[in-house]
Protein backbone atom coordinates (compact mmCIF):
# COMPACT_ATOMS: atom_id res chain seq x y z
CA UNK A 1 0.00 0.00 0.00
CA UNK A 2 1.42 3.40 -0.99
CA UNK A 3 1.85 6.30 1.45
CA UNK A 4 -1.07 8.19 -0.09
CA UNK A 5 -3.30 5.11 0.19
CA UNK A 6 -2.34 4.70 3.85
CA UNK A 7 -3.16 8.33 4.53
CA UNK A 8 -6.53 7.94 2.84
CA UNK A 9 -7.39 4.78 4.79
CA UNK A 10 -6.37 6.47 8.05
CA UNK A 11 -8.42 9.51 7.09
CA UNK A 12 -11.46 7.34 6.37
CA UNK A 13 -11.15 5.64 9.76
CA UNK A 14 -10.99 8.99 11.56
CA UNK A 15 -14.07 10.20 9.72
CA UNK A 16 -16.22 7.39 11.14
CA UNK A 17 -16.67 9.65 14.17
CA UNK A 18 -19.57 12.12 13.96
CA UNK A 19 -18.96 15.49 12.34
CA UNK A 20 -20.08 18.69 14.06
CA UNK A 21 -23.33 18.89 12.05
CA UNK A 22 -24.32 15.37 13.08
CA UNK A 23 -23.56 16.28 16.69
CA UNK A 24 -25.87 19.32 16.48
CA UNK A 25 -28.65 17.26 14.87
CA UNK A 26 -28.42 14.49 17.47
CA UNK A 27 -28.49 17.06 20.29
CA UNK A 28 -31.61 18.67 18.75
CA UNK A 29 -33.34 15.29 18.46
CA UNK A 30 -32.38 14.28 22.01
CA UNK A 31 -33.63 17.58 23.48
CA UNK A 32 -36.87 17.53 21.49
CA UNK A 33 -36.08 20.69 19.50
CA UNK A 34 -37.20 18.69 16.44
CA UNK A 35 -38.71 15.22 16.17
CA UNK A 36 -37.45 14.64 12.61
CA UNK A 37 -34.68 15.73 10.24
CA UNK A 38 -35.62 17.58 7.07
CA UNK A 39 -32.89 18.98 4.79
CA UNK A 40 -32.81 20.58 1.36
CA UNK A 41 -30.50 21.49 -1.51
CA UNK A 42 -31.45 25.00 -2.72
CA UNK A 43 -29.55 25.92 -5.92
CA UNK A 44 -30.14 29.12 -7.83
CA UNK A 45 -30.81 28.12 -11.48
CA UNK A 46 -28.29 30.52 -12.99
CA UNK A 47 -25.59 28.09 -14.13
CA UNK A 48 -24.38 24.51 -14.03
CA UNK A 49 -23.48 22.88 -10.72
CA UNK A 50 -19.83 22.11 -9.96
CA UNK A 51 -18.03 19.71 -7.65
CA UNK A 52 -18.46 22.04 -4.66
CA UNK A 53 -22.23 21.69 -5.05
CA UNK A 54 -21.81 17.91 -5.06
CA UNK A 55 -20.53 18.17 -1.49
CA UNK A 56 -23.65 20.08 -0.44
CA UNK A 57 -26.00 17.70 -2.27
CA UNK A 58 -24.42 14.59 -0.79
CA UNK A 59 -24.19 16.14 2.69
CA UNK A 60 -27.82 17.23 2.82
CA UNK A 61 -29.17 14.03 1.29
CA UNK A 62 -26.87 11.85 3.40
CA UNK A 63 -28.07 13.49 6.63
CA UNK A 64 -31.71 12.98 5.69
CA UNK A 65 -31.01 9.30 5.03
CA UNK A 66 -28.93 8.75 8.15
CA UNK A 67 -31.73 10.09 10.38
CA UNK A 68 -34.64 8.63 8.39
CA UNK A 69 -35.78 12.09 7.40
CA UNK A 70 -36.73 13.95 4.23
CA UNK A 71 -34.77 15.76 1.53
CA UNK A 72 -36.09 18.52 -0.76
CA UNK A 73 -34.76 19.88 -4.02
CA UNK A 74 -35.74 23.54 -4.16
CA UNK A 75 -34.84 26.07 -6.83
CA UNK A 76 -34.09 29.44 -5.26
CA UNK A 77 -35.40 31.28 -8.29
CA UNK A 78 -36.00 34.71 -6.74
CA UNK A 79 -33.72 36.57 -9.18
CA UNK A 80 -35.24 36.63 -12.69
CA UNK A 81 -32.23 38.39 -14.25
CA UNK A 82 -29.99 35.30 -14.55
CA UNK A 83 -32.25 32.27 -14.35
CA UNK A 84 -33.01 29.88 -17.23
CA UNK A 85 -35.11 26.74 -17.63
CA UNK A 86 -32.00 25.11 -19.19
CA UNK A 87 -30.22 25.38 -15.83
CA UNK A 88 -33.22 23.94 -13.98
CA UNK A 89 -33.12 20.79 -16.11
CA UNK A 90 -29.34 20.39 -15.85
CA UNK A 91 -29.46 20.72 -12.05
CA UNK A 92 -32.22 18.14 -11.77
CA UNK A 93 -30.14 15.73 -13.90
CA UNK A 94 -27.04 16.31 -11.75
CA UNK A 95 -28.83 15.77 -8.43
CA UNK A 96 -30.52 12.63 -9.74
CA UNK A 97 -27.24 11.27 -11.12
CA UNK A 98 -25.58 11.69 -7.72
CA UNK A 99 -28.32 9.49 -6.25
CA UNK A 100 -30.09 12.14 -4.16
CA UNK A 101 -33.81 11.29 -4.33
CA UNK A 102 -36.15 14.19 -3.60
CA UNK A 103 -39.16 11.87 -4.16
CA UNK A 104 -42.17 14.20 -4.71
CA UNK A 105 -40.54 17.20 -3.03
CA UNK A 106 -39.39 19.33 -5.97
CA UNK A 107 -40.09 22.97 -5.11
CA UNK A 108 -39.59 26.45 -6.55
CA UNK A 109 -39.14 29.49 -4.33
CA UNK A 110 -41.17 31.46 -6.86
CA UNK A 111 -44.22 29.37 -5.96
CA UNK A 112 -44.08 31.03 -2.53
CA UNK A 113 -44.11 34.62 -3.84
CA UNK A 114 -47.66 35.18 -2.55
CA UNK A 115 -46.68 33.98 0.94
CA UNK A 116 -43.52 36.10 0.86
CA UNK A 117 -45.54 39.16 -0.06
CA UNK A 118 -47.92 38.49 2.84
CA UNK A 119 -44.92 38.01 5.12
CA UNK A 120 -43.60 41.43 4.09
CA UNK A 121 -47.01 42.98 4.77
CA UNK A 122 -46.99 41.35 8.22
CA UNK A 123 -43.61 42.95 8.99
CA UNK A 124 -44.90 46.36 7.87
CA UNK A 125 -47.96 46.00 10.14
CA UNK A 126 -45.65 45.10 13.06
CA UNK A 127 -43.59 48.21 12.37
CA UNK A 128 -40.67 46.00 11.34
CA UNK A 129 -40.39 47.09 7.67
CA UNK A 130 -40.66 50.33 5.71
CA UNK A 131 -40.50 51.61 2.13
CA UNK A 132 -37.34 53.53 1.23
CA UNK A 133 -36.77 56.05 -1.57
CA UNK A 134 -32.99 55.85 -1.39
CA UNK A 135 -31.00 54.64 -4.40
CA UNK A 136 -28.73 51.62 -4.09
CA UNK A 137 -25.72 53.97 -3.84
CA UNK A 138 -27.37 56.05 -1.12
CA UNK A 139 -28.27 52.91 0.84
CA UNK A 140 -24.58 51.93 0.78
CA UNK A 141 -23.60 55.40 2.01
CA UNK A 142 -26.20 55.37 4.81
CA UNK A 143 -25.14 51.86 5.90
CA UNK A 144 -21.91 53.05 7.51
CA UNK A 145 -18.79 50.94 7.86
CA UNK A 146 -17.23 48.36 10.12
CA UNK A 147 -16.07 51.17 12.41
CA UNK A 148 -18.97 53.63 12.02
CA UNK A 149 -22.69 53.09 12.61
CA UNK A 150 -25.19 53.69 9.84
CA UNK A 151 -27.59 56.63 9.47
CA UNK A 152 -31.35 56.33 9.69
CA UNK A 153 -33.16 56.16 6.35
CA UNK A 154 -35.51 59.16 5.89
CA UNK A 155 -38.23 56.65 4.96
CA UNK A 156 -37.97 54.90 8.30
CA UNK A 157 -40.31 57.47 9.94
CA UNK A 158 -43.24 56.67 7.63
CA UNK A 159 -46.42 55.38 9.21
CA UNK A 160 -47.58 51.79 8.90
CA UNK A 161 -50.47 52.94 6.71
CA UNK A 162 -48.24 54.89 4.32
CA UNK A 163 -45.83 51.97 4.04
CA UNK A 164 -48.69 49.55 3.28
CA UNK A 165 -49.95 51.86 0.53
CA UNK A 166 -46.51 52.37 -1.00
CA UNK A 167 -45.75 48.65 -0.92
CA UNK A 168 -49.07 47.89 -2.60
CA UNK A 169 -48.22 50.50 -5.27
CA UNK A 170 -44.81 48.86 -5.77
CA UNK A 171 -46.60 45.56 -6.40
CA UNK A 172 -49.04 47.28 -8.79
CA UNK A 173 -46.15 48.46 -10.99
CA UNK A 174 -46.42 52.18 -10.24
CA UNK A 175 -42.70 52.65 -9.72
CA UNK A 176 -39.70 52.19 -11.97
CA UNK A 177 -36.84 49.84 -11.18
CA UNK A 178 -34.54 51.22 -8.50
CA UNK A 179 -36.90 53.95 -7.24
CA UNK A 180 -38.36 52.10 -4.24
CA UNK A 181 -37.30 49.24 -1.98
CA UNK A 182 -38.73 47.65 1.16
CA UNK A 183 -36.29 47.52 4.08
CA UNK A 184 -36.44 45.53 7.30
CA UNK A 185 -36.32 47.77 10.41
CA UNK A 186 -33.67 46.19 12.67
CA UNK A 187 -30.69 48.26 13.88
CA UNK A 188 -28.64 50.78 11.89
CA UNK A 189 -25.96 50.67 14.61
CA UNK A 190 -25.58 46.87 14.63
CA UNK A 191 -21.97 45.66 14.53
CA UNK A 192 -23.20 43.18 11.87
CA UNK A 193 -23.72 45.23 8.72
CA UNK A 194 -26.21 42.64 7.41
CA UNK A 195 -28.56 43.74 10.21
CA UNK A 196 -28.51 47.44 9.31
CA UNK A 197 -32.02 47.60 7.86
CA UNK A 198 -31.38 45.24 4.92
CA UNK A 199 -33.38 45.52 1.71
CA UNK A 200 -35.93 42.70 1.57
CA UNK A 201 -37.91 43.63 -1.61
CA UNK A 202 -36.97 45.45 -4.81
CA UNK A 203 -38.80 46.63 -7.92
CA UNK A 204 -37.78 44.71 -11.05
CA UNK A 205 -39.99 44.82 -14.16
CA UNK A 206 -38.74 41.53 -15.55
CA UNK A 207 -40.38 38.35 -16.80
CA UNK A 208 -39.69 35.34 -14.57
CA UNK A 209 -38.96 31.86 -15.98
CA UNK A 210 -41.62 30.29 -13.71
CA UNK A 211 -44.19 33.01 -12.88
CA UNK A 212 -44.04 35.00 -16.12
CA UNK A 213 -45.14 38.64 -15.73
CA UNK A 214 -47.26 38.20 -12.59
CA UNK A 215 -44.77 40.07 -10.40
CA UNK A 216 -42.74 43.25 -10.79
CA UNK A 217 -41.36 43.14 -7.24
CA UNK A 218 -39.06 40.37 -6.05
CA UNK A 219 -37.82 39.36 -2.59
CA UNK A 220 -34.13 39.46 -1.73
CA UNK A 221 -32.38 36.17 -1.02
CA UNK A 222 -31.77 36.81 2.70
CA UNK A 223 -35.48 37.41 3.22
CA UNK A 224 -36.80 34.68 0.93
CA UNK A 225 -34.53 31.84 2.01
CA UNK A 226 -35.61 31.45 5.66
CA UNK A 227 -39.27 31.73 4.60
CA UNK A 228 -38.81 28.94 2.04
CA UNK A 229 -37.20 26.71 4.67
CA UNK A 230 -39.98 27.42 7.17
CA UNK A 231 -42.79 26.81 4.66
CA UNK A 232 -41.30 23.42 3.67
CA UNK A 233 -40.73 22.29 7.24
CA UNK A 234 -36.94 22.18 6.90
CA UNK A 235 -35.32 21.60 10.28
CA UNK A 236 -31.64 22.12 9.53
CA UNK A 237 -30.75 24.66 6.86
CA UNK A 238 -27.19 23.71 5.98
CA UNK A 239 -25.19 26.24 4.00
CA UNK A 240 -21.61 27.36 3.40
CA UNK A 241 -19.49 29.59 5.61
CA UNK A 242 -20.06 32.85 3.72
CA UNK A 243 -23.60 32.87 5.15
CA UNK A 244 -22.41 32.75 8.76
CA UNK A 245 -22.69 36.54 9.11
CA UNK A 246 -26.19 36.32 7.61
CA UNK A 247 -27.45 33.89 10.25
CA UNK A 248 -28.67 36.65 12.65
CA UNK A 249 -30.85 37.98 9.81
CA UNK A 250 -32.11 34.45 9.01
CA UNK A 251 -33.07 34.01 12.66
CA UNK A 252 -34.65 37.48 12.80
CA UNK A 253 -36.90 36.74 9.80
CA UNK A 254 -38.25 33.42 11.13
CA UNK A 255 -38.67 34.88 14.62
CA UNK A 256 -40.52 38.04 13.53
CA UNK A 257 -42.78 36.03 11.22
CA UNK A 258 -43.57 33.77 14.19
CA UNK A 259 -43.12 30.38 12.58
CA UNK A 260 -43.98 27.68 15.17
CA UNK A 261 -40.99 25.42 14.36
CA UNK A 262 -38.32 27.72 12.95
CA UNK A 263 -35.46 26.05 11.03
CA UNK A 264 -31.86 26.24 12.27
CA UNK A 265 -29.09 27.48 9.98
CA UNK A 266 -25.74 25.64 10.21
CA UNK A 267 -22.66 26.60 8.18
CA UNK A 268 -19.85 24.38 6.91
CA UNK A 269 -16.69 24.99 4.88
CA UNK A 270 -16.84 24.94 1.09
CA UNK A 271 -14.95 22.39 -0.96
CA UNK A 272 -12.06 24.07 -2.75
CA UNK A 273 -10.02 22.19 -5.36
CA UNK A 274 -6.56 23.48 -6.25
CA UNK A 275 -6.02 24.92 -9.74
CA UNK A 276 -9.54 24.52 -11.09
CA UNK A 277 -12.04 26.98 -12.55
CA UNK A 278 -15.48 27.05 -10.86
CA UNK A 279 -16.55 30.70 -11.25
CA UNK A 280 -19.61 31.00 -13.49
CA UNK A 281 -18.43 34.18 -15.21
CA UNK A 282 -15.08 32.58 -16.11
CA UNK A 283 -16.70 29.41 -17.45
CA UNK A 284 -19.25 31.49 -19.37
CA UNK A 285 -16.36 33.36 -21.01
CA UNK A 286 -14.57 30.11 -21.88
CA UNK A 287 -17.78 28.83 -23.51
CA UNK A 288 -18.47 32.05 -25.41
CA UNK A 289 -14.89 32.25 -26.70
CA UNK A 290 -15.01 28.63 -27.91
CA UNK A 291 -12.10 27.60 -25.67
CA UNK A 292 -14.31 24.83 -24.28
CA UNK A 293 -17.23 23.19 -26.08
CA UNK A 294 -19.83 23.90 -23.39
CA UNK A 295 -20.49 23.86 -19.65
CA UNK A 296 -19.93 20.09 -19.79
CA UNK A 297 -16.50 20.22 -21.45
CA UNK A 298 -14.53 17.38 -19.81
CA UNK A 299 -11.76 19.78 -18.74
CA UNK A 300 -14.12 21.58 -16.36
CA UNK A 301 -15.29 20.45 -12.93
CA UNK A 302 -19.00 21.05 -13.36
CA UNK A 303 -20.90 17.92 -12.40
CA UNK A 304 -22.05 17.56 -16.01
CA UNK A 305 -18.41 17.81 -17.18
CA UNK A 306 -17.21 15.22 -14.68
CA UNK A 307 -20.03 12.88 -15.74
CA UNK A 308 -19.17 13.34 -19.42
CA UNK A 309 -15.48 12.71 -18.75
CA UNK A 310 -16.34 9.42 -17.05
CA UNK A 311 -16.36 10.12 -13.31
CA UNK A 312 -18.93 8.12 -11.36
CA UNK A 313 -21.29 9.08 -8.52
CA UNK A 314 -19.43 6.58 -6.33
CA UNK A 315 -16.09 8.30 -6.96
CA UNK A 316 -17.53 11.70 -6.03
CA UNK A 317 -19.09 10.27 -2.87
CA UNK A 318 -15.75 8.77 -1.88
CA UNK A 319 -14.04 12.10 -2.54
CA UNK A 320 -16.54 14.07 -0.45
CA UNK A 321 -16.24 11.58 2.42
CA UNK A 322 -12.45 11.79 2.38
CA UNK A 323 -12.55 15.59 2.38
CA UNK A 324 -14.77 15.56 5.47
CA UNK A 325 -17.03 18.24 6.95
CA UNK A 326 -15.53 21.11 8.93
CA UNK A 327 -15.85 24.80 9.80
CA UNK A 328 -12.38 25.68 8.46
CA UNK A 329 -11.85 26.54 4.80
CA UNK A 330 -9.13 24.53 3.09
CA UNK A 331 -8.23 23.31 -0.39
CA UNK A 332 -7.83 19.78 -1.69
CA UNK A 333 -5.45 18.60 -4.40
CA UNK A 334 -7.14 17.52 -7.64
CA UNK A 335 -5.02 14.35 -7.45
CA UNK A 336 -7.21 13.19 -4.56
CA UNK A 337 -10.24 13.24 -6.88
CA UNK A 338 -8.25 11.27 -9.46
CA UNK A 339 -7.34 8.73 -6.78
CA UNK A 340 -11.04 8.22 -6.03
CA UNK A 341 -12.03 7.49 -9.63
CA UNK A 342 -9.12 5.04 -10.02
CA UNK A 343 -10.19 3.24 -6.86
CA UNK A 344 -13.79 3.05 -8.06
CA UNK A 345 -13.02 1.80 -11.59
CA UNK A 346 -10.06 -0.52 -11.12
CA UNK A 347 -12.14 -3.53 -10.03
CA UNK A 348 -15.19 -2.78 -12.16
CA UNK A 349 -13.83 -2.29 -15.66
CA UNK A 350 -12.39 -4.55 -18.34
CA UNK A 351 -8.78 -3.99 -19.34
CA UNK A 352 -8.82 -3.52 -23.10
CA UNK A 353 -6.14 -3.21 -25.79
CA UNK A 354 -5.91 0.23 -27.41
CA UNK A 355 -2.90 1.67 -29.25
CA UNK A 356 -2.96 5.47 -29.19
CA UNK A 357 0.10 6.22 -31.37
CA UNK A 358 0.41 3.16 -33.63
CA UNK A 359 3.36 1.82 -35.55
CA UNK A 360 3.07 -1.43 -37.51
CA UNK A 361 4.80 -4.66 -36.50
CA UNK A 362 5.21 -7.54 -39.00
CA UNK A 363 5.96 -11.01 -37.56
CA UNK A 364 7.86 -12.46 -40.49
CA UNK A 365 7.67 -16.11 -39.41
CA UNK A 366 3.95 -16.04 -38.54
CA UNK A 367 1.82 -17.81 -41.19
CA UNK A 368 0.27 -15.37 -43.67
CA UNK A 369 -3.53 -15.34 -43.59
CA UNK A 370 -3.68 -17.02 -40.18
CA UNK A 371 -5.69 -15.59 -37.28
CA UNK A 372 -5.74 -16.90 -33.73
CA UNK A 373 -8.29 -15.91 -31.11
CA UNK A 374 -6.53 -15.70 -27.80
CA UNK A 375 -8.21 -15.89 -24.39
CA UNK A 376 -7.72 -12.73 -22.34
CA UNK A 377 -8.89 -12.23 -18.74
CA UNK A 378 -10.94 -9.03 -18.60
CA UNK A 379 -9.66 -7.96 -15.19
CA UNK A 380 -6.99 -9.91 -13.31
CA UNK A 381 -8.25 -8.51 -9.99
CA UNK A 382 -11.88 -9.41 -10.61
CA UNK A 383 -12.56 -12.86 -12.06
CA UNK A 384 -16.30 -12.14 -12.19
CA UNK A 385 -15.73 -9.98 -15.29
CA UNK A 386 -14.85 -13.13 -17.21
CA UNK A 387 -12.74 -13.80 -20.29
CA UNK A 388 -12.90 -12.52 -23.87
CA UNK A 389 -11.22 -13.55 -27.12
CA UNK A 390 -9.10 -11.16 -29.15
CA UNK A 391 -7.68 -11.73 -32.66
CA UNK A 392 -3.91 -12.13 -33.18
CA UNK A 393 -2.47 -11.97 -36.68
CA UNK A 394 0.79 -11.56 -38.63
CA UNK A 395 0.56 -7.76 -38.72
CA UNK A 396 -0.08 -5.82 -35.51
CA UNK A 397 0.12 -2.32 -34.11
CA UNK A 398 2.06 -1.34 -31.01
CA UNK A 399 2.66 2.05 -29.36
CA UNK A 400 5.36 4.03 -31.16
CA UNK A 401 7.02 4.74 -27.81
CA UNK A 402 7.41 0.98 -27.26
CA UNK A 403 10.13 0.85 -29.94
CA UNK A 404 13.51 2.56 -30.03
CA UNK A 405 16.22 1.87 -32.57
CA UNK A 406 18.93 3.07 -30.18
CA UNK A 407 17.56 2.68 -26.67
CA UNK A 408 19.03 4.11 -23.46
CA UNK A 409 20.02 1.86 -20.57
CA UNK A 410 17.18 0.14 -18.72
CA UNK A 411 14.86 0.40 -21.74
CA UNK A 412 13.27 -3.06 -21.81
CA UNK A 413 10.76 -2.65 -24.58
CA UNK A 414 11.30 -3.33 -28.27
CA UNK A 415 14.61 -2.61 -30.01
CA UNK A 416 16.72 -4.55 -32.57
CA UNK A 417 17.95 -7.79 -31.03
CA UNK A 418 15.70 -7.61 -27.97
CA UNK A 419 12.91 -10.04 -27.10
CA UNK A 420 9.70 -8.89 -25.41
CA UNK A 421 6.40 -10.42 -24.43
CA UNK A 422 3.32 -9.44 -26.45
CA UNK A 423 0.70 -9.37 -23.74
CA UNK A 424 -1.36 -12.61 -23.56
CA UNK A 425 0.28 -13.82 -26.79
CA UNK A 426 3.90 -14.76 -27.55
CA UNK A 427 7.55 -13.86 -27.05
CA UNK A 428 8.54 -11.69 -30.02
CA UNK A 429 12.09 -10.72 -31.05
CA UNK A 430 12.79 -7.51 -32.95
CA UNK A 431 15.07 -7.91 -35.97
CA UNK A 432 14.89 -4.71 -38.01
CA UNK A 433 12.83 -1.66 -38.91
CA UNK A 434 11.81 0.27 -42.04
CA UNK A 435 11.91 4.08 -42.21
CA UNK A 436 10.45 6.69 -44.53
CA UNK A 437 12.43 9.43 -46.29
CA UNK A 438 12.24 11.59 -43.14
CA UNK A 439 13.76 8.90 -40.94
CA UNK A 440 10.47 7.99 -39.21
CA UNK A 441 9.96 4.31 -38.40
CA UNK A 442 7.04 2.96 -40.44
CA UNK A 443 7.36 -0.77 -39.87
CA UNK A 444 9.10 -3.10 -37.42
CA UNK A 445 10.04 -6.65 -38.46
CA UNK A 446 10.12 -9.43 -35.87
CA UNK A 447 10.01 -13.17 -35.34
CA UNK A 448 7.96 -14.97 -32.73
CA UNK A 449 8.43 -18.12 -30.68
CA UNK A 450 5.40 -20.39 -31.32
CA UNK A 451 6.20 -22.35 -28.15
CA UNK A 452 5.70 -19.29 -25.95
CA UNK A 453 1.94 -19.02 -26.52
CA UNK A 454 0.23 -17.41 -23.56
CA UNK A 455 3.29 -15.31 -22.78
CA UNK A 456 5.68 -17.83 -21.20
CA UNK A 457 8.46 -19.91 -22.72
CA UNK A 458 8.71 -23.64 -21.92
CA UNK A 459 12.53 -23.37 -21.71
CA UNK A 460 12.14 -20.97 -18.78
CA UNK A 461 13.83 -17.95 -20.36
CA UNK A 462 12.63 -14.57 -19.12
CA UNK A 463 11.92 -11.27 -20.80
CA UNK A 464 11.76 -7.92 -19.02
CA UNK A 465 9.39 -6.04 -21.31
CA UNK A 466 5.67 -6.68 -21.83
CA UNK A 467 3.81 -4.54 -24.35
CA UNK A 468 0.24 -4.41 -25.60
CA UNK A 469 -0.85 -4.65 -29.22
CA UNK A 470 -3.84 -4.68 -31.57
CA UNK A 471 -4.29 -6.74 -34.73
CA UNK A 472 -3.78 -4.59 -37.84
CA UNK A 473 -6.35 -6.67 -39.73
CA UNK A 474 -9.10 -6.58 -37.12
CA UNK A 475 -8.31 -3.42 -35.14
CA UNK A 476 -10.57 -0.40 -35.60
CA UNK A 477 -9.63 3.25 -35.91
CA UNK A 478 -11.10 5.66 -33.33
CA UNK A 479 -10.57 9.18 -31.98
CA UNK A 480 -9.22 9.51 -28.46
CA UNK A 481 -9.02 12.74 -26.46
CA UNK A 482 -6.41 13.25 -23.76
CA UNK A 483 -7.05 15.96 -21.17
CA UNK A 484 -4.83 17.98 -18.89
CA UNK A 485 -5.83 20.71 -16.48
CA UNK A 486 -7.24 23.69 -18.38
CA UNK A 487 -5.24 25.88 -16.01
CA UNK A 488 -1.45 26.22 -16.21
CA UNK A 489 -0.71 24.68 -12.82
CA UNK A 490 2.81 26.13 -12.56
CA UNK A 491 1.53 29.69 -12.91
CA UNK A 492 -1.75 29.35 -10.97
CA UNK A 493 -5.36 29.96 -11.98
CA UNK A 494 -5.30 33.73 -12.50
CA UNK A 495 -2.99 36.26 -14.12
CA UNK A 496 -2.30 39.60 -12.42
CA UNK A 497 -5.05 41.25 -14.50
CA UNK A 498 -7.61 38.68 -13.27
CA UNK A 499 -7.74 36.72 -16.53
CA UNK A 500 -7.39 32.95 -16.56
CA UNK A 501 -3.95 31.41 -16.96
CA UNK A 502 -4.83 28.78 -19.57
CA UNK A 503 -2.83 25.68 -20.42
CA UNK A 504 -2.41 25.53 -24.22
CA UNK A 505 -2.00 21.74 -24.02
CA UNK A 506 -5.17 21.01 -22.07
CA UNK A 507 -6.64 19.00 -24.98
CA UNK A 508 -4.85 16.58 -27.30
CA UNK A 509 -6.95 14.89 -30.00
CA UNK A 510 -5.59 11.63 -31.44
CA UNK A 511 -7.49 10.61 -34.59
CA UNK A 512 -5.55 7.50 -35.63
CA UNK A 513 -5.81 5.30 -32.57
CA UNK A 514 -6.41 1.59 -33.12
CA UNK A 515 -8.48 -0.46 -30.68
CA UNK A 516 -9.60 -4.05 -30.41
CA UNK A 517 -12.93 -4.61 -32.24
CA UNK A 518 -15.04 -5.17 -29.14
CA UNK A 519 -14.64 -1.51 -28.17
CA UNK A 520 -16.59 -0.38 -31.22
CA UNK A 521 -19.86 -1.35 -29.53
CA UNK A 522 -19.24 1.05 -26.61
CA UNK A 523 -22.20 3.30 -25.78
CA UNK A 524 -22.20 6.77 -24.19
CA UNK A 525 -20.68 6.74 -20.68
CA UNK A 526 -19.32 3.18 -21.04
CA UNK A 527 -15.86 3.13 -19.49
CA UNK A 528 -12.83 0.85 -19.74
CA UNK A 529 -9.22 0.60 -18.74
CA UNK A 530 -6.99 0.89 -21.79
CA UNK A 531 -3.99 -1.25 -20.81
CA UNK A 532 -1.02 0.93 -19.78
CA UNK A 533 -2.78 4.12 -20.94
CA UNK A 534 -5.44 4.90 -18.34
CA UNK A 535 -9.20 4.80 -17.87
CA UNK A 536 -11.35 5.99 -20.78
CA UNK A 537 -15.03 6.74 -21.33
CA UNK A 538 -17.14 6.86 -24.50
CA UNK A 539 -18.12 10.51 -25.01
CA UNK A 540 -21.85 11.17 -24.67
CA UNK A 541 -21.93 13.99 -27.23
CA UNK A 542 -19.64 12.99 -30.06
CA UNK A 543 -19.88 9.19 -30.09
CA UNK A 544 -22.10 7.58 -32.72
CA UNK A 545 -23.38 4.01 -33.01
CA UNK A 546 -20.42 1.89 -34.03
CA UNK A 547 -18.03 4.84 -33.90
CA UNK A 548 -17.24 5.83 -30.31
CA UNK A 549 -15.03 8.75 -29.31
CA UNK A 550 -13.10 8.09 -26.11
CA UNK A 551 -12.21 10.61 -23.40
CA UNK A 552 -9.39 9.82 -21.02
CA UNK A 553 -10.83 10.00 -17.50
CA UNK A 554 -7.51 9.63 -15.70
CA UNK A 555 -4.08 8.12 -16.20
CA UNK A 556 -3.13 4.94 -14.35
CA UNK A 557 -0.56 6.46 -12.03
CA UNK A 558 -1.03 9.31 -9.61
CA UNK A 559 1.17 12.38 -9.64
CA UNK A 560 0.10 13.08 -6.06
CA UNK A 561 2.99 13.51 -3.64
CA UNK A 562 2.65 13.63 0.13
CA UNK A 563 4.24 16.76 1.62
CA UNK A 564 7.54 15.86 3.25
CA UNK A 565 7.98 16.53 6.95
CA UNK A 566 10.13 19.58 7.65
How would you describe the overall organization of this protein?
This protein has 566 residues and is α/β, with parallel strands linked by helices. Helix content is 26%, strand content 23%. It has 13 helices and 27 strands. It has helices spanning 3-14, 20-30, 51-66, 85-97, 113-125, 136-143, 160-171, 221-232, 247-256, 280-288, 303-309, 313-323, 334-345; strands at 38-41, 70-75, 106-108, 129-132, 181-184, 199-203, 217-219, 236-240, 264-268, 271-273, 330-332, 351-352, 354-355, 358-363, 371-377, 387-393, 395-399, 419-422, 427-435, 441-449, 466-467, 470-471, 476-483, 507-515, 527-530, 534-538, 549-554. It has a seven-stranded mixed beta sheet. Strands 21-18-19-20-14-17-22 form a seven-stranded mixed beta sheet, with no helix packed on it. A four-stranded antiparallel beta sheet has the order 4-5-6-7. Mean pLDDT is 92; it is low at 560-566.
In percent, how helical is the residue content? 25-40%
What is the radius of gyration?
31 Å
Distinct helical segment count: 13
Count of DSSP strands: 27
The major sheet is characterized as: 7 strands, mixed
Q: What would you call the structural class?
A: alpha/beta
Overall shape: it is: elongated
**What is the straight-line distance between the termini?**
23 Å
Low-confidence runs of at least 5 consecutive residues: 560-566
> Largest beta sheet: what is the strand line-up?
12-25-26-27-23-24-13
What proportion of the residues form beta strands (DSSP E)?
15-25%
Mean pLDDT: 92
